[in-house]
Amino acid sequence: MAANAVDEARLRDLIPGVLAALVHRGADFATAEDAVQEALVRAHENWGTWSVDYPDDPKGWLITTAWRRFVDLTRSDIARHRRESRVADEPAPGPSATADDTLQLYFLCAHPILTSASAVALTLRAVGGLTTRQIAQAYLVPETTMAQRISRAKHTVSDVRLASPGDLRTVLRVLYLIFNEGYSGEVDLVAEAIRLARQLAATTDDPEVAGLLALFLLHHARRPARTRADGSLVPLAQQDRGLWRRDMVAEGVAVLQAALARDRLGEYQAQAAIAALHADAQAADETDWVQIVEWYDELVRLTDSPVVRLNRAVAVGEADGPQAGLMALAELDPTLPRYTASSAYLHERAGDIATAASLYVDAAERAQNVAERNHLTLRAATLRQRLAN
Amino acid sequence: MAKYLFLKHYRGAPASVNDVPMDRWTPAEIEAHIKYMDDFADRLKDSGEYVDSQALRSEGEWVRSDGAGKPPVTDGPFAETKDLIAGYMIIDVDSYERAVELAGELSAAPGAGGKPIHEWLEVRPFMGSPSTVTE
Questions:
Q1: Number of domains in chain A
Q2: CA triplet A180, A166, A67: central angle to 5 degrees?
Q3: For a disulfide at A182, which of A190, A287, A316, A383, Cβ 3.0-4.6 Å?
Q4: How near does any CA of chain A get to the CA of B67, in Å?
């Protein structure tokens, strides 16, 4: 294996174009995707080794190799079904795949008839060029399970005509899921989501695509400050802002400003705007919470999401004081995730330490991951210690 | 090699020796406990005996079929008195003795006052696969 000799990300950037080229030449999506995956594995195994030099035209090499494999797969399929061969050995001449073809692949892989888990897996493989093993490892499921999930997803979308117009919002949602659940194995899914968002932004000028890319960059910029060496969480207010990646912040802000200038606001642009306001503050107490609350008002208008309302209540607590935050919170459903943790925080800010401590204990019991549970348990213990002294 | 499951109970296990609920510990005691647990898992990864470990959320309920064409019946959330699993660890070790030794170490994680909790852990051997040689 000479995987190191091959620039992994550069190679994977070529995948949607290669797959689109095969589909453009009349290959069916499911078989073409298998053929591209096999060509990719061959590239990993061979490029840069003694047997095969790194090709001058890697994309051309992949298309040719994948097409030959597609022909083989189709022939054996046809033989199985005792049908006539209808495909030629060499790629048919014709217009090459365009950015629109790549965009159609995104639509197909995120098609609303797929479940979220299937759309995520199919996008990572067919558009992202990850292997089934890498995707399985990232999501902590057996490889056979992931192989089956992808195979079923491909068959589910096989009757969908690529020409039918897709819904960009479903694509953005899939990328958001990949980013937000960024589990990591050998592949960093957070970085992968950013790569895919960049690629998508290059094929369409929709401001929400730019908004999503900006949102990713602005959150990813905080990663070095978000956890301690032992894996424990550092809340935004306590993060060492000197560790934030200023280059990513700058890029995120630039992408966002260009998107906002188009004057077609959407939820991802609004979320990115909030992240940008945080990035803009040199210290936590310099945060422009009044403007953040205004953006949350926009988000409530755009999404009417209860989770957004919860985050808004916390922002109101910062902008207008904890009592105002608690009043905003009181209008919401207490069974919302993180409701109790938010309530604990606002009570702590209001100086009601005893109530805050017991709410943190309740919140820890409702936590959805170990890092969050540990953080909330520690908050409770810290407040109790303060009460005892 | 044989696989064993360690089950840690939120409730339902016999009382531990150092029986103080975690929300009464100091922050430093909680941090020491978390570090001990992380180090324990890391050591088993180094020794080639670690398989998996997961913490479970505290909510959940019982579910059963109510017959064809009907939605399943649920019974929950769990009553306060019910046995409740907090999490598990799976190890792959040479012997039962080794499994017990490791469970003992895990049980001695520090708790209130920095002293070992001495909590009860449930140790369960996995069913194996049929062996190739049968006589």
A1: 2
A2: 90
A3: A190
A4: 27
Yes or no: say if B27 and A378 are a contact pair by the CB < 8 Å rule: yes
- Residue ranges of A 177-236 with Cβ closer than 8 A to chain B: 230-232
The vertex-A100 CA angle with A97 and A101, nearest 5°, equals 45
C-alpha closest to that of B12 among B85, B61, B62, B79: B85
Domain boundary among the residues A80, A103, A134 is at A80
> What is the β-pairing status of strands B62-64 and B122-125?
unpaired
How would you write B108-123 as a 3-class SS string? Answer: CCECHHHCECCCCCEE
pLDDT, tens digit, for every residue of A27-75? 889 999 999 999 988 888 887 665 666 788 889 999 999 999 999 988 8
Provide the pairing of β-strand B84-93 with B50-55.
Answer: antiparallel
A60: in domain? yes
Q: Is residue A22 part of a domain?
A: yes
**ipTM value:** 0.87
pLDDT at A87: 47
Query: Is domain B2-125 given the CATH code 3.20.20.70 in the classification?
Result: no
Q: Do the domain assignments include residue A170?
A: no
pLDDT of residue A382: 96
Distance in angstroms (rounded) separating the CA atoms of residues B111 and B23: 11
- A315 part of a folded domain: yes
| Alpha carbon distance A69, A72 (integer Å) | 5
A344 touches chain B (CB under 8 A): no
Residue A325: domain span: 301-389
Domain boundaries, chain B: 2-125
Chain B hits for A382, Cβ within 8 Å = 27
Which of A45, A80, A115 finishes a domain? A80
Those residues whose C-beta lies under 8 Å from the C-beta of residue B43, and which sit 6 or more positions away, are none
Q: Which residues numbered 38-67 in B keep a CB inside 8 Å of some CB on A?
A: 38, 55, 57-59
